[in-house]
Design goal:
The chain is α/β, with parallel strands linked by helices. It is 37% helix and 17% strand. Strand 3 (81-85) and strand 4 form a beta hairpin. The structure holds zinc ion.
Amino acid sequence: MSRVKVFLALALACMVMSAQSQPVEAGVNVIPMPAEYSAGSGSVSSHRMANLPQKVRISEKALRRHLEGRELADWQLKSAYWLELGQKRVSIVAADEQGVFYARQTLRMMASLDSSLTCCTILDWPRFRYRGVMLDESRHFQGKEFVLKQLEMMALLKMNRFHFHLVDNPGWRVQIDAYPRLTKLTSWRPQAYFWDWEKNEIGGPFVEEGTPGAYGGYYTKQDIAEILAFAHERHIEVIPEIEMPGHNYETRAAYPELACSLPGGGRDPWELCPGKESTFEFLEKVLLEVFDMFPSQYIHIGGDEARKNNWKLCPDCQARMKAEGLKGAEELQSYMIRRMERFAHAHGKRIIGWDEILQGGLAPDATVMSWHGTEAGLKAVREGHDVIFTPTRYCYLDFHQDSAQFRPVGRLVSLEKVYSFEPIAEGISEAEAHHVLGLQGCLWTEHVQDAWHAEMLLYPRVFALAETGWSQADRKGWTDFQRRVATFSALARKWGYTVFPALPLNSTL
Ligand SMILES: [Zn+2]
């Protein structure tokens, strides 16, 4: 479909650094690689391009003329654009504002990376609708300015979902008016570094807000409103996560009555008690405030790593299981998730949960975040559910990308490994593929205290996720991607981002 200039192919051949998969086409310095690119004649300097008049047309009919019969889903059409860079003007045609926005991101990246641009035509649309990044703000807290900075980068990369992991054992990070102790008491701790605080997998102490030297913080409703406005302008949906029933050490520290009716709340320190009605009352009140803050159609309810031992001994949990005819602790978890899904639906929301929500029976409309591997996602797709893939071995960005990296943990998840991820896993048929919403990189922050460290783990691997999420599969090519990553990483560093070396230092570009 695309024309390839012979000289570009030759230039590319000179740059091949390995015998791995060849790019379809080179010459355009953009991440993610557009669906179709045709070089025209002539060139324009990037400085001049910035001042060229832009002719923008928002019309589905006009865009369809450029698509020449290519079949796109409605959500793809919304993001699609046709772009012509000439010496005298820039023309953009899109069906929606979103398409115009993405066309401008392409122009922005082209102008930033090259001083002289070949005149060209680009026709482009995304492959997956969910192209996400998750940030864990509980273990360590970075705060608003950091988040805005990463949203800016995500927008340039045409990523469109920010999964905000706001609450977890070591800290509650969002203002909830109905339960002020959550932020007054459990957003703050004496030790800054997570592993100094959490010993032997049991959480440490919290201290009250205002305690001298306390580490922590949280987002006020005003902060959240600012983040959402910033994200909205960049066509990024922010999905909040409120964990249940596990990962609630901090919640129990603030409100001990939410634990099981056992001495000290039971052996497991993290779980809420799904036997008590008051637990549901708490969660519903919290969620109502969260729904008011976040317009996203999704609420992530966690659902991961609940140990469930307390429930087997707790009289309230036992009574609940008997009354509801539940056969075991897994079915009790499933009862809780289904009940919370009904609550979410009643307020026009849909739930996302980590893949443990499959255990004991999946809530009818739940979207599954497949993290253990791809098997859980496959099972969910088979059952007709939507899936977002975040498998640890490709998408967990807390894992190290090089053994020389600062505080390397987990398995090796190199840039090449991330880039090699294919979300349409083997065994997913064409008819089922629409259930694969996309992919997400997850930055857990147990060992990530500093902003520079967080960025070093995000970049350049988020560049790879962006390309897999947006670019058509046949437009990806590891060799050409390395070339673009090297140039773009240098630019991102100039803009103040910390980017891990993408290539060995002796590589020639
Ligand atoms: Zn209980």
